[in-house]
Design brief:
With 239 residues, the protein is α/β, with parallel strands linked by helices. The protein has a 6-stranded mixed beta sheet. Helix 8 packs across helix 9. The longest helix is centred in the last third of the chain and has 18 residues.
């Protein structure tokens, strides 16, 4: 399967999290919604001067942090760190799928967004990948989402779907906590979305048709395990 995100250059979270002081820096950045200046990170972590700079440089080399201007640092991608480490200011974005209407009374993204709101997750934007045919089935509802359209047989091709979705997803991961919903549309679309979520540690949901409840296919807890955060207390320290 081809991947249209820079997977080979993906942030090396596990390597960073093995070191306690590096985790402190990540925690400071994440809880400040992904961006903080040097003095703020010093204050929150207790790391001073050259020691802090060493860990910031390490995070830059691992592809996790960027320095936009002198003295200011930001996470390259807000997802997943701002989500799993608890930024109170994080803004959510929903990325989902819309299938043909058939016998459904309600479009799946609408149901998913309603269920997310019950868990106090209120996305400020919703991006939905679909086909013109499926979009036409729901035109009477005047759905106000950002549409990513797959034409012809693209909606049945995993590679084509990822090519359509990846550029937008890359930008969203940089600036928001993204939630991917792989409930609807075609089976290839579901596989494409779940694959991207797995590769880039994006929270991923599935909405049960019968019970109308959210199943977290990739949860906050599972992301923490994959990143190594669950074993933080046994990780080695670095001076």
């Amino acid at each position: 399967m081809k991947v249209y995100l820079p997977y080979n250059n993906a942030p090396r979270y596990q390597e960073a999290i093995k070191v306690e002081n590096t985790r402190k820096v990540l925690g400071s950045l994440a809880t400040n919604d992904g961006i903080a200046n040097f003095s703020m990170i010093e204050k929150e972590t207790g790391l001073r001067g050259g020691l802090l700079q060493h860990h910031l440089d390490r995070l830059i080399s691992l592809g996790i942090v960027e320095s936009e201007v002198k003295g200011t640092y930001r996470l390259k991608y807000k997802t997943p760190l701002c989500y799993v480490l608890g930024s109170k200011r994080t803004k959510y974005v929903y990325v989902g799928l819309l299938g043909r209407r058939d016998s459904y009374d309600e479009p799946e993204p609408k149901a998913a967004l309603s269920l997310l709101s019950q868990q106090k997750i209120l996305p400020s934007l919703a991006y939905v990948l679909t086909s013109p045919e499926a979009l036409g089935d729901w035109k009477d509802l005047k759905l106000e989402y950002q549409w990513i359209l797959c034409y012809g047989d693209q909606i049945f091709d995993i590679d084509q779907i990822q090519r359509k979705l990846a550029p937008q997803l890359t930008d969203l991961l940089r600036n928001y906590s993204v939630i991917i919903d792989c409930t609807s549309s075609t089976k290839p679309a579901t596989i494409a979305c779940y694959d991207l979520a797995q590769r880039f540690l994006v929270p991923c949901i599935y909405v049960s048709e019968e019970k109308k409840v959210i199943k977290w296919l990739i949860s906050k807890e599972s992301i923490k395990v994959r990143m190594g955060l669950q074993k933080a207390e046994t990780s080695r320290k670095e001076d």
